Amino acid sequence: MDWQAFWLTIRLAVLVAAVLVVIGLPIAYWITYSRWRWKFLAEAVVALPIVIPPTVLGFYVLLALGPRSPLGRWWEALTGHSLAFTFEGLVIGSILYSLPFAVQPFAASFSAVDSKLIAASATLGASRTKTFFRVILPLSISGLVTGVALSFAHTMGEFGVVLMVGGNIPGVTRTVSIDIYDQVQMSNYGGANQTALVLVWIAFVVLSLVYALNRRIWAIWPWK
Amino acid sequence: MTAKTRALVLLGAAALSATSVAQELTVAAAADLSSALTELAANYQKQTGTRVRLAFGSSGNLTQQIKNGAPFDLFFSADEDYPKQLMEERLAEQDSFYRYAVGRLILWVLKSSSLDIEHRGLKVLLDASVKKIAIANPQHAPYGRAAVAALRHFQLFDKVADRLVLGENVSQAAQFVESGNAQVGLIALSPALEPSMRGSGRYWEVPSDAYPELDQAAVLLSRSQHKGEAAAFLGYMKMPEAQAILRGYGFWLPEEKH
Q: Does pTM surpass 0.80?
């Protein structure tokens, strides 16, 4: 069993889920409350990774990370190495790939918050930030948890993007799904089954914990 | 091929094209064949009316698909082992085994690269500017195994192992180089000669004694519903016209000395 691949995949999924909370919440907030008439275009762009095949997305991420793109050149000048075939490269690809799975549940739960409560908070003198953390977010906890759980799970099982930009380097970019794929290729069905079973268990345990926490989170919410 | 078999092939092909129903073959082939086989299939269709649908992938992957019931009529592998494996499991016809080409391993860089591969060969891999070396996955791609064998032959493997990146097949390894993300690739000659790649890269051929011979074989699959047509297409592959196309796309013929 390639435990290194498991550890790598879990680190990737946790990191991607965390980043998606940080960038997903403002995007979802903007999508929900903006009155810009063209905002449906932004919504469509956010949903695109659902439609684009992962290998296609991965191919363009590969091009974007490479020395032929401005982003790739900038990164190389900054750090001295290319982003492709690195863990950071996987993180970038995975954030794009899982973005809608975080933003859509966030936005859905924001728009379910009663607008009278937001108005009341404003008339009581609370700033927008304060209203967000004390009214909107506490009422959207289940959407937040769903978004985190989905982006975590989606990244755990990611294959096409990693295949295209990873380069299958042990300990750096060889995730569990790539490891399983390699074992199937080598006709090592036994090994593939074992690895898949462990992957399913880990995902099940983590998701159960997240959903269990969802019921109790009110007890530990810091901004009550 | 004798004149007699050649006549038989043409006769068979003519008989097939005379039938009103359009004939169709589905061929699974290793990724290194993509250009050569596309051209061969188009020529064959022009001559016989039989439509040849092509499915490309790594030989290992295609073998798995065949074992699990993929509806292919013929399988062109990038080695001999996978076809033999299929014959052992009675998934391929015993007498259809045909060694159609021998693959060639090259060191490939972009035209704009400053690496002097023409004079220094594999030694360029030790340059500091070579940060990533793309090869096909040696676990399931024959050219990946050949690349690792060549690296070991020149006692370079341990020095470069931490800079290897693995493509799912040779085409992906070539893509890693073409996109500029890997500085060199150890790939098959055939993708480097593809029209889309020919202009973008330079190559140095790895001496063929540095790696085990890359004999490539094809087999007719037992589950095929079109065995007659499949055999006719295999027959076409043995004709000088088809062999010239294979040679043009960077393969040796099995009987050639090299």
A: no
